[in-house]
């Protein structure tokens, strides 16, 4: 159950980033790196299984690109991060153990600029780099936390909706630690300060932070008990607002244009709202009235809505206009191929996937689409060639492993299909499912001696890890 918003409310006395204390030994005395990673995997297992997790490779790819642009300029960029999207209209974002950061679709749409979105993501990154969760745990005695499972449940339940959190965890040990998940204002201000520095170094408009929070604060005056989710979990104070404004006023003015990626992602999300027919009408009206920052993004949104409405002829006409603009963005290549596939033209779809893959070889959503299209066309061996090539480059990509499972299943390779599905489950944090899948594969008995030996070794490895997790 994805009821989370680890909004860590924190800040510290005014200090330079370089002067921040080394928190390692104190924070890790009761909450080791290994425990945090295990907790993060357990939470992400539930995130991936939740229907509100938005399994959209293109939007997730953009968010990870944005996130790592910020991480790369952080003073503490050794951590690995996973950025994911929650299909929820509320304005929210949250950090969780293990470097996992979630962003609601409502925030993506509410941000009035890419710099505003980046300011929130940078704030959450700072909660991770400063070990705020570990510091929270370290502040309590080791014996206080009942179990890691209870802590994980409390982290998931206590932040996204305070009105239902208590009911969700009242019957569990997690209820006893719910009140300990209220973070100090010092931590929140620390995240503000470091997030602001990241914005500046990454060439975003640092005024995006004060602009976003000021607008939320003004909007909050019109709410009573139903304040925006972000304000419930990230309480604003006059000191925080004043601190942001002071930094913004002292910074030199710079106008930062939104990327086309940002515009396309927002158009994609808008086109998924309401009924297909209403989405088409809204997209056509925006184009007609020129209510857009990017015509390409507006047209992209129209094509997405037309495909939803199964108006494929109209969609193809708009695709041609999009493809005429050079260079073609990878998301537009992907949409053009998807449009052809949805219209029942797999040959044209494969041509477009190939052209897009050659133009943007590092854009994985195009590779996912190309492999899926090859499978749909019955070209299993070609699909296997492509999926093996991609897995050699990205061996930790759970989506590629799922496609590998489908490819081997189509080719009748039962062991290899189950093995690939097991790898996908393990990468999603579900070792129990991984062990079950690889055991089914071993029972099939259709693999070579080398394949059987490798699968057996993998199963033993997972069993040891899963046993260790249960013991802890």
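^ Assign residues to that structure.
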């Amino acid at each position: 159950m994805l009821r989370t918003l680890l909004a860590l409310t924190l800040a510290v006395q005014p200090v330079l980033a370089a002067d921040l204390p080394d928190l390692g030994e104190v924070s890790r005395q009761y909450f080791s790196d290994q425990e945090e990673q295990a907790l993060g995997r357990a939470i992400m297992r539930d995130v991936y299984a939740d229907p509100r997790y938005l399994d959209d490779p293109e939007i997730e790819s953009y968010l990870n690109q944005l996130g790592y642009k910020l991480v790369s300029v952080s003073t503490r960029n050794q951590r690995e991060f996973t950025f994911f999207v929650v299909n929820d209209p509320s304005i929210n974002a949250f950090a969780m153990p293990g470097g996992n950061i979630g962003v609601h679709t409502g925030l993506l749409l509410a941000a009035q600029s890419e710099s505003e979105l980046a300011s929130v993501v940078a704030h959450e990154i700072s909660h991770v780099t400063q070990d705020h969760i570990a510091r929270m745990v370290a502040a309590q005695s080791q014996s206080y936390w009942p179990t890691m499972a209870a802590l994980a449940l409390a982290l998931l339940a206590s932040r996204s909706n305070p009105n239902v959190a208590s009911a969700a965890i009242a019957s569990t040990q997690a209820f006893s630690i719910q009140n300990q998940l209220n973070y100090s204002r010092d931590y929140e201000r620390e995240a503000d300060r470091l997030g602001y520095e990241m914005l500046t170094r990454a060439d975003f408009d640092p005024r995006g932070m004060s602009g976003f929070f000021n607008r939320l604060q003004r909007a909050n005056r019109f709410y009573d008990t139903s304040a925006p989710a972000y304000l419930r979990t990230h309480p604003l104070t006059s000191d925080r607002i004043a601190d942001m404004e002071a930094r913004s006023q002292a910074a030199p003015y710079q106008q930062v244009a939104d990327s086309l990626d940002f515009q396309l992602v927002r158009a994609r999300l808008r086109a998924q709202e309401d009924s297909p027919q209403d989405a088409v009408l809204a997209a056509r009206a925006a184009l007609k009235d020129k209510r857009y920052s990017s015509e390409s993004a507006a047209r992209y949104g129209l094509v997405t809505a037309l495909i939803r409405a199964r108006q494929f002829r109209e969609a193809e006409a708009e695709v041609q206009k999009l493809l005429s603009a050079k260079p073609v963005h990878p998301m537009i290549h992907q949409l053009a191929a998807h449009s052809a596939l949805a219209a029942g033209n797999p040959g044209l779809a494969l041509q477009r996937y190939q052209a897009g893959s050659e133009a943007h070889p590092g854009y994985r959503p195009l590779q996912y689409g190309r492999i899926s299209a090859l499978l749909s066309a019955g070209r299993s061996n070609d699909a296997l060639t492509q999926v093996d090539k991609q897995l050699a480059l990205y061996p930790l990509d759970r989506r590629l492993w799922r496609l590998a499972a489908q490819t081997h299943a189509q080719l009748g390779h039962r062991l290899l299909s189950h093995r690939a599905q097991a790898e996908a489950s393990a990468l999603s944090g579900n070792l129990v499912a991984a062990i079950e899948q690889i055991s089914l594969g071993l029972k099939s008995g259709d693999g070579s001696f080398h394949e059987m030996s490798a699968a057996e070794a993998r199963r033993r490895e997972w069993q040891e890890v899963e046993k260790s997790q249960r013991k802890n």
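Confidence is low (pLDDT under 50) at residues 1-26, 158-179.
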